[in-house]
Amino acid sequence: MPLIALTGGIASGKSTIAARLGEHGAVIVDADRIVHEVQSPGSPVLDAISEAFGAEVIHEDGSLDRAALGALVFGDDAALARLNGIVHPAVRDESARRFAAAFADDSDAVVVYDVPLLVEARVDDPWDLIVVADAPADVRVRRLIELRGMAEDAARARIAAQVSDADRRAIADIVIDTSGTLAETLRQVDEAWPRFANLS
């Protein structure tokens, strides 16, 4: 019943690694997807966000205006802490439910939690292994510009707002260097897979 955390900074190649692990048979639990689901219209989390940050962060259709909310909390530590205090407990509960369901389905399952904010929010959870997707900041800036259409200063600001690469590497059991070709990244995942599977 191995439970593995997969983390990495923005544009670090984490999704590529998660997809490859899924091809090997891992059950992937996506933290970002859970965040979106717990913030769906009518949810207690969205009600709490609206109460904390005002109706201007809610679209007319009742959904969360992520851009408006992001503008309010980006660079404001107190506001971000208030938001995290609303969202993180709900994400923690839902992810735990999904881990349990995966293991109930198959006691030998390899469950991978794809989680950007591991260092910030979940580092002390009982992971069997922590995997870090790692690429230099300049490589990630280029990806954000080329693949997501971000301006360079915005891309650098997003990276600077996250924990440092050194902090992520410090908690890693396995570091996968994603700065090379796609084939090189996938080869590293393939080579690491037996280590995951042998934890079962």
TrEMBL record:
Report the function annotation for this chain: Catalyzes the phosphorylation of the 3'-hydroxyl group of dephosphocoenzyme A to form coenzyme A.
Q: Where is it localised? A: Cytoplasm
Enzyme Commission number, as recorded: 2.7.1.24
Q: Which family does it belong to?
A: Belongs to the CoaE family.
List the molecular function annotations (GO) for this entry. Answer: dephospho-CoA kinase activity
Residues engaged in binding ATP: A11, S12, G13, K14, S15, T16
Q: Which organism is it from?
A: Microbacterium bandirmense
Q: In which pathway does it act?
A: Cofactor biosynthesis; coenzyme A biosynthesis; CoA from (R)-pantothenate: step 5/5
Entries under CDD domains matching the protein: DPCK
Q: Which SUPFAM superfamilies would you find in this protein's record?
A: P-loop containing nucleoside triphosphate hydrolases (SSF52540)
List keywords of the entry alphabetically.
Answer: ATP-binding, Coenzyme A biosynthesis, Cytoplasm, Kinase, Nucleotide-binding, Transferase
Q: Which reaction does it catalyse?
A: 3'-dephospho-CoA + ATP = ADP + CoA + H(+)
Matching InterPro entries: Depp_CoAkinase, P-loop_NTPase
The protein's name is Dephospho-CoA kinase
